[in-house]
Amino acid sequence: MNKKVKLKNIFGEDLDLLIEGNEKFGDVVIFVHGFGTDKDEGFASFLDFSKFIKNDFLAIRFDLSGFGVSDGEQYEFQFQKAAGDVDSVIRYARKIYPNKRINIIAHSLGTFIVSLLSP
């Protein structure tokens, strides 16, 4: 399965999501990229990893607002806004895939953003 989704964040900006993998059996894995990159992460590491797990998991890769092809500007980056983007993706995953466990893989600045959601 390969599906592109435009998801609104709390500011009404479109976040660009790519959903890949096994929708029937796999749990969800959300990838959160670092600063200055996009849903593929530097050197396409998230792209490679999502291809590796596609038979066993449902991968959701997305561009934070201001990065990649999501709406917004990179100079507008704020930690709380980025955490809101991640929260929007988690809420979407819970709504669309209510019976699946959600896992998060984050890299670089993405790890700090995710930690803001888990006090």
**At CATH's second level, what is the architecture?**
3-Layer(aba) Sandwich
State which percent range the strand residues make up: 25-35%
Number of helices: 3
Q: Roughly what is the average pLDDT, rounded to an integer?
A: 95
Biggest sheet record: 5 strands, mixed
Estimated helix fraction? 25-40%
Strand order of the largest sheet: 1-2-4-3-5
Tally of structural domains: 1
Characterization of this structure:
- The chain has 119 residues and is α/β, with parallel strands linked by helices.
- The chain has one domain: Alpha/Beta hydrolase fold, catalytic domain (Rossmann fold, 3-Layer(aba) Sandwich), CATH 3.40.50.1820.
- It is 29% helix and 27% strand.
- It is built from three helices and five strands; from the N terminus they run E-E-E-H-E-H-E-H.
- It has a five-stranded mixed beta sheet, sandwiched between helices.
- The chain is globular, with a radius of gyration of 13 Å.
Concise synopsis of the structure shown:
The protein has 119 residues and is α/β, with parallel strands linked by helices.
Search tags:
alpha/beta, 5-stranded mixed beta sheet, 3 helices, 5 strands, 119 residues, Rossmann fold
Write the layout of secondary structure elements.
Elements: E1 2-8, E2 14-21, E3 27-32, H1 45-53, E4 57-62, H2 79-96, E5 102-106, H3 109-115
Parallel strand pairs: 3-4, 3-5
Antiparallel strand pairs: 1-2, 2-4
